[in-house]
Design goal:
4 strands, mainly alpha, single chain, binds zinc ion
């Protein structure tokens, strides 16, 4: 036998289930109408419950480590798959010509995007990280294309400084030539 309280609870649940669409619409309208108020409430709630929220998040992360990792891997895959429609699947290293691939799990054969304009690009962070952090939509595609990143292999990329690279390369070439003339020829 159900108590009155339980009966009422059951009835409320059934009512909600049969009027699901109505409640969903009502909720959406309410949220839209009270957008600013709800945003303010969320901010205040987060400030007020900072410690509890942090603890709760930690606990959740600790309990769901595998689930989170799977979610992150799926998210990464989905995002890079979307970007692979814009970025060439493979290219040749801009310096040595080695065949390199986009979104490759193998570090030694993946494309390393190069800040070729002295790091003055809008995208200052690691370009691959930027791709992961930004959705592949019209606005971001425009930003990405306008940066015209160079594509290098894992060996050539770390040799180039971002700032003052022409000056550095000229000095490096001078050094290499001097070493060659003064030593290699004598060997
Ligand atoms: Zn290379």
């Amino acid at each position: 036998m159900y108590s009155n309280k339980e009966k009422e609870k059951k009835w409320r649940k059934e009512y909600r289930d049969t009027h699901k669409d109505y409640f969903r619409e009502y909720g959406k309208k309410y949220q839209l109408k009270n957008k600013d108020k709800l945003k303010q409430y969320r901010i205040e709630y987060r400030i007020k419950n900072k410690i509890e929220i942090r603890e709760r998040n930690r606990e959740y992360q600790r309990k769901n480590r595998l689930k989170i990792k799977r979610w992150q891997t799926n998210f990464k895959k989905r995002r890079l798959d979307a970007w692979s429609k814009i970025i060439p699947k493979q290219a040749n290293c801009g310096i040595c010509g080695k065949l390199i691939k986009f979104n490759s799990t193998n570090f030694s054969e993946s494309i390393h995007f190069d800040h070729r304009y002295e790091g003055m690009e809008v995208i200052k962070v690691n370009p691959s990280e930027w791709l992961l952090g930004n959705e592949c939509n019209a606005e971001n595609i425009e930003i990405w294309k306008s940066r015209n990143f160079g594509m290098l292999c894992n060996k050539c990329n770390p040799h180039l400084p971002t700032v003052n690279r022409i000056d550095w390369l000229e000095k490096a070439l001078k050094y290499a030539k001097q070493s060659y003339v003064s030593n290699v020829k004598k060997l």
